[in-house]
Amino acid sequence: MKKDNEKQPIRAFQKPYLRFTSGLRTGEKVQIGSDSWIIGRDESADLQLDSRVVSRLHAAIIKQGGYWFVRDLGSKNGVIRNRVRIQPGELVPLYDGDEVQIGNASVFEFHDPESTVHEANLRLRKPGLWLDDLNRDVHLRDQRLDPPLSPQQYALLALLVSRQGVVVTNAMIADVLWPEAAGGVEDAAIDNAISRLRARLAEVD
Questions:
Q1: At the N or C end, where does the chain have fewer CB atoms within 10 A?
Q2: Rounded mean pLDDT of 127-154?
Q3: Structure confidence at residue 57 (pLDDT)
Q4: What is the full DSSP assignment across the chain?
Q5: Could you tell me the pLDDT band of residue 49, with boundaries at 50, 70 and 90?
Q6: All CATH 1.10.10.10 domain ranges in the chain, comma separated
Q7: In the CATH scheme, what is the code of domain 17-114?
């Protein structure tokens, strides 16, 4: 039987949590309580940081499609992930061990005990669009494309967005979509594939 004054072992968090390493709340560990979690100065925030350099609603930690992200909610002094300031409104993925700075007020590390996802599986293409290579999912403006793209459509999209600013020839597209054809693909077939992909992406308003 344990004595009343005997210290109990600290149970490790089973859900993602933040470990504060600098500034406000240094040394604290705070478990993320929901899939949409607000950080800010306002009393309504899920995590309140009482500092003038923190906006009322400064940042959000969001879970979408099984992945965690951080978003700057239009703060005055910004959100920095791994020493790079993120753009307001942009969803930026969070991986186990990432460092996030809230203005000049506080720095924390993001930890996900159940994380099995590696950065290579989640490829950011441009603001508002990201591809999940592990599940072959496409997310546009915070919405998952459902039903998902066909394997051929996903391969075409991955090719096009990975080569932004570079000419993508019909031969390159044919090699990705019909490798067995050895170049014997009509231009009309490629045009149809692109049109079908555009139609699917247009489903997200």
A1: N
A2: 81
A3: 97
A4: ---TTSPPPPPPPSS-EEEEEEETTTT-EEE--SSEEEEESSTTSSEE---TTS-TT-EEEEEETTEEEEEE-S-SS-EEETTEEPPBT--EEE-TT-EEEETTTEEEEEE-TT----GGGEEEEETTEEEETTTTEEEETTEE-SSPPPHHHHHHHHHHHHTTTS---HHHHHHHH-GGGTT---HHHHHHHHHHHHHHHTT--
A5: very high
A6: 124-203
A7: 2.60.200.20
User: How many other CB atoms are found less than 10 A from the CB of residue 119?
Assistant: 10
What are the structure tokens assigned to 189, written together? 């077939």
What is the tens place of the pLDDT at every residue in 94-105?
888 889 999 999
Encode pLDDT of 5-42 as tens digits: 443 333 345 689 999 999 999 999 999 989 999 999 99
Q: Determine the CATH number of domain 124-203.
A: 1.10.10.10
Instruction: Report the first-to-last Cα separation within the chain, whole angstroms.
Output: 62
Q: Against a cut of 0.90, is the pTM above it? A: no
* Alpha carbon separation from 10 to 13, 20, 22, 110 (Å, rounded): 9, 18, 23, 19
